[in-house]
Amino acid sequence: MSGCETCDAKKLVRSPSGLRMVPEHRSARSPFGLDEPPWVPDKECPRCMQCDTKFDFITRKHHCRRCGKCFCDKCCSKKVPLPRMCFVDPVRQCAECALISQKETEFYDKQLKVLMNGATFFVTPGTSDKSELMVCRLSNNQRYLVLDGDSHYEIEIIQISTVQILTEGFTPGGGNTRAIGMILQYKVPGSEELKQMKFTAGEDFSCNKKLSASWLAAMHKATKLLYESRDQ
């Protein structure tokens, strides 16, 4: 078993927002995770930050668990799963945040499993003209991209700088294109030098093109979440 696959101990913590199951060490957190936002202090929000309704004994204020802003019950009534913050149960979110969290649910319910199951690509490191057939997958703890063939690589997700998805086919509306590979740029810990790898879906029958395309689509979504986590 590789070092990146060791089980990361987790602990149950309670915050004003709800129960969360988080890694014991911050360094073990998922690269797609988000920190809990600070809540807007009650004294700074006399009115709902969405509909401007004034708060009183009847109209109570609620904080969105994703953005931390203050809303009335009507504008913050949805309870939606928020795995990026490690909440155990669905939590109260404003309408805008709830929509974003619902869209992310597909990634956590489906695409994350696709990435962990892996797919086969021809991998070309750097400027080399030699490719190697490798199984590419996301580690169970979501922190490494593991490449297995005659060679073995473990790329830390947090060190990835850019991901460019390669496609073929084109129409004016952008339809009928399919993902056929990607170019990955990343840093090795302790170095500022950028390294590059090119992934290309195989053309022979032994490589499942549909599986490769699904894996690349999931990687594209994972990259967006990674950038968002970084920019927080």
From TrEMBL:
CDD domains: FYVE_ZF21. Keywords: Metal-binding, Zinc, Zinc-finger. InterPro entries: FYVE-type_Zinc_Finger, ZFYVE21_C, ZFYVE21_C_sf, Znf_FYVE, Znf_FYVE-rel, Znf_FYVE_PHD, Znf_RING/FYVE/PHD. Residues 42-97 form the FYVE-type domain. GO terms for molecular function: zinc ion binding. SUPFAM superfamilies: FYVE/PHD zinc finger. Transmembrane segments: none annotated. The keyword Calcium does not apply. It comes from the Eukaryota. SMART domains: FYVE (SM00064). This is ZFY21 protein. It comes from Nyctibius grandis (Great potoo).
